[in-house]
């Protein structure tokens, strides 16, 4: 009875009274140990709600290719420091290029990557820019899809600052919702890196609402790629297409054979769309007899350094840690991957023997939000007092989910700790995943370097 009364009260307060009053009136939630009550949080409770919403949004995006337009600008001359970033992004790619290539690969890929063209869809996204940087560093020609020309100029500007030869880079204006531009984009390409994916600014009420664009956009790219003779399509899926279903134990390991159940009630529209789009991709590849020409990459929680000041995606979580924007963290945990390693997996998967027809998990060790906070406290002791290590009870998150769709999508992450074993990916691609805490700290350091955090 008290629970129903509380939910009714929360709904009323959210609609009628200020969010700050909403936060302070939830003082009835108790605490124990490290758990922090919303009542104890006082005026900062609103910031927690903002954080959780951003966390939910960033996980749904998961660093798939952003289609947001960037700022126009002319490429600057690369600096020595920027060249170092390009080198670190390309290290694992270089190791992969040196490995022996099987007979079938030799026949299909040729010896000179300088003449090979790779299409990168959604090139303005966080992951996609790193993939483009690694490809250019390895000697490929890169063609990126953007929604408008100004976004292309912004990407070229960013990549040039990090030492890329942007003379090897060009752009085509198109997006996943239309046919126009895709024939031009794919013409003459040897490989396709498909990273573009629709994402919502707010969680849609209809969990199936993103499926048509995600699925049809993927099929639009795949069908043209297969018809044009592209050697391999590397599609960025997500670990979210693998790890969600009813009846999971408190600790479990995600495997290549696992699939998210899109009918499971706690799922967000984004997770449903990623799962159904990947299913459709494999079905299309099988129907065309081209399964070996498709490979999907499944990143975990993507951190690591930014290439520019656009801090959208998961790195926003680290920004909020460092700025003291909220006083506590939810008790959730995710397998983490450094974006530089993720980019290297994408590039290696184009030619790696045995990668065709496989689902490659790209993630290392699992960290909780509290683990990330502790790593940041150690790396940036001057910020320690701002970085929260208290944990909110699951009850708070669950109750808040009844009145906020963004928070509701966290329900599937409460009470479980997923792990991964990506050793088969390392064996196949020669990409060894760096420690997850290193990715956390690298993300934080880049936020300072780009002036996102003062």
If you had to describe this structure to a student in words, what would you say it looks like?
- By secondary structure, the chain is α/β, with parallel strands linked by helices.
- The chain has one domain: NAD(P)-binding Rossmann-like Domain (Rossmann fold, 3-Layer(aba) Sandwich), CATH 3.40.50.
- The protein is 44% helix and 13% strand.
- The protein has 18 helices and 14 strands.
- Strands 3-2-1-4-5-7-11 form a 7-stranded parallel sheet, with helices on both faces.
- Strand 1 (117-121), helix 7 (126-137) and strand 2 (141-146) form a beta-alpha-beta unit.
- Helix 4 packs antiparallel against helix 12, helix 5 crosses helix 7 (126-137) and helix 14 (369-379) crosses helix 18 (436-449).
- It starts with a helix and ends in a 5-residue tail after the last helix.
Q: Count of helical segments?
A: 18
Q: What's the level 1 CATH class?
A: Alpha Beta
**Which strand order do you get reading across the main beta sheet?**
3-2-1-4-5-7-11
Query: Largest sheet, if any?
Result: 7 strands, parallel
Low-confidence stretches: 1-87, 94-111
| Proportion of beta-strand residues | 5-15%
Secondary-structure-derived class: alpha/beta
**Which of globular, elongated, flat, extended, rod-shaped describes the shape?**
globular
State the distance separating the first and last CA atoms: 48 Å
CATH superfamily, please?
NAD(P)-binding Rossmann-like Domain
**Which percent range fits the helix content?**
40-55%
- Can you count the beta strands? 14
The CATH topology assignment is Rossmann fold
How many domains make up the coordinates?
A: 1
Q: Mind telling me the C-alpha Rg?
A: 22 Å
How much is the average pLDDT?
Answer: 80
Overall CATH architecture: 3-Layer(aba) Sandwich
